[in-house]
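Figure 6 in text form: structure in, sequence out.
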């Protein structure tokens, strides 16, 4: 094991970091850290495996690991057409719902908390099925939507109808008129597909910790909107329970049901998905165990190391997997908001933050690449020389 100040000829570094949101992609983080390490320790082998936890950046991480990037035109959250990407390799697809239904597709300052739809996410799933995928990792996060996945299920053949038998409108607001649901037209290929819901969110669908209350305000929902959305998703659960039985009621309070505006619930009930923490799934899909073989030091990280990191984010998952093999882990970040003891409990020996070099957060964002290279030089001096 490499330790501070002790050189080890057999040292081998694996960089397995997530993106620095708003500054660097996970691939760019790996490139910058590699450049800094090699300036100080040019002889040390460095491997890279950009990672993600199911949220934005998940498809990019899969592509960096050797998956093929596929692009399709789908319905965006506002109903207009957008380009969305997914990744495919050997019958396994990695899909990021935010590619189709994410906040990234909204104009700056524009929100649609009651009408934004997940229809495009269903179209993205259908495109993967058309391409031959029989195993799908469905990463959810960064959504602009709170429709319980009704739009997604509609795109896959379900029908959500009002009391007169007409389709309800888009978004969570449209569910106010919901009377019945018909799953008989769901794409039959789904029954033979292994679909894993990958998320770091364990919120239930409704209630004080549910999707509308916790995440609705981030999507522009007013307190009145939150109350409406919570009520319609309670009704949504009742209608789905009438259609498929008590399993639907139980799943509303299960981990992941509240992910991405309730699309997690729609996937669990309508698509038969199983839920797993996003980083666990992605480490399996990306081949982390093989990449870890022979490593003596792992460098992980993300934009902000804080309390959320400890609850299923990529650095915590990487650290847990490396610690299980008794491999030392250090982290890089833009901002560090965890004390050393919390890092230690997570299996992270030490963290290096851009703010140690530049206290102005705006400058850190703008100059993240060069600053990260300087941090990597410090890591090489501390651990590899």
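Output sequence:
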């Amino acid at each position: 094991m490499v330790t501070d100040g002790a050189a080890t000829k057999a040292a081998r570094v694996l960089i397995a970091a997530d993106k620095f949101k708003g500054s660097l992609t996970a691939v760019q983080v790996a490139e910058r850290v590699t450049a800094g390490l090699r300036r100080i320790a040019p002889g040390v082998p460095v491997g890279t495996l950009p990672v993600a936890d199911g949220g934005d950046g998940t498809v990019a991480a899969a592509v960096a690991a050797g998956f093929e990037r596929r692009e399709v035109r789908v319905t965006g959250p506002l109903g207009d057409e957008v380009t969305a990407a997914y990744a495919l390799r050997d019958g396994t697809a990695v899909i990021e719902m935010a590619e189709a239904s994410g906040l990234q597709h909204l104009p700056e300052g524009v929100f649609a908390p009651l009408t934004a739809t997940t229809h495009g996410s269903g179209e993205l799933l259908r495109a993967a099925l058309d391409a031959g995928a029989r195993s799908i990792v469905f990463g959810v996060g960064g959504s602009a939507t709170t429709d319980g996945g009704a739009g997604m299920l509609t795109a896959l053949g379900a029908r959500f109808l009002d009391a007169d038998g007409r389709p309800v409108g888009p978004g969570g607001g449209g569910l106010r008129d919901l009377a019945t649901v018909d799953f008989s037209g769901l794409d039959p290929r789904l029954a033979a597909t292994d679909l894993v819901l990958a998320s770091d969110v364990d919120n239930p669908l409704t209630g004080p910790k549910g999707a509308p209350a916790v995440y609705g305000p981030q999507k522009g929902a007013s307190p009145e909107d939150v109350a409406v959305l919570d009520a319609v998703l309670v009704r949504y659960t009742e209608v789905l329970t009438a259609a498929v039985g008590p399993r639907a009621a139980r799943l509303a309070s299960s981990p992941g049901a509240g992910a991405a505006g309730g699309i997690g619930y729609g996937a669990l009930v309508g698509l038969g998905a199983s839920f797993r923490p996003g980083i666990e799934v992605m480490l399996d899909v990306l081949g982390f165990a093989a990449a870890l073989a022979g490593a003596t030091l792992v460098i992980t990280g993300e934009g902000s190391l804080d309390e959320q990191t400890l609850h299923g984010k990529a650095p915590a998952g990487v650290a847990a997997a490396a610690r299980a093999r008794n491999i030392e882990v250090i982290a890089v970040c833009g901002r560090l908001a965890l004390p050393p003891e919390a890092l230690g409990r997570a299996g992270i020996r030490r963290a290096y933050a851009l703010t140690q070099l530049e206290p102005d957060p705006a400058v850190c964002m703008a100059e993240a690449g060069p600053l990260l290279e300087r941090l990597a030089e410090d890591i090489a001096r501390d651990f590899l020389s």
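Caption detail: The mean pLDDT is 95.
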